[in-house]
Design a protein that fits this description.
Elements lengths: L11 H7 L3 H10 L14 H14 L1 H19 L5 H10 L3 H14 L28 E9 L4 E8 L10
Antiparallel strand pairs: 1-2
Amino acid sequence: MPATLDAPQAGPVTALAEELSNMERAVALYASDMPMRYRYQGPLDWNLVDWIAQGVARLGREEIRRRASFLAGHRKLWLRDMTTPEIERRHKARFPSKRRLDTAESMAATTVSWITVALAARNLPIVIDGPCPKCDGAGKLWANWVIDDASGWYEEGYRPCPMCQDGGAA
């Protein structure tokens, strides 16, 4: 009889990882015992899943989600070069090692190819830690917008801030 290969069975640890968004996985890996210089070990790296579970056990599900929301908000501001010194200070207090955070984000991104993200996990709120630098925390901006350029129809008024309201565009 030919030898057969047994695939690792997906257990409750994998189910936990499926309930997390990519940012939540990165925060969990940051909080875990994952080595600082860890490199991806192949298409199914179960060490990552174990470290994700360890990070969730250490911080708790709610704290993981809260920190991931702040991380997503910081990333959104950073991409637009809008981080303030106060927001940057809070981010560094939450994630003191930039190198470890980069490694955790990179390793979390690799898990997406072999552990699906549940639909509920994809709705991670983006939270800015402090007042929004675009609207100063008002949540709305006064704007003029063109309704019909040919007829000269313009309107003005308040619109939701694209940075801190309605999720905005990343």
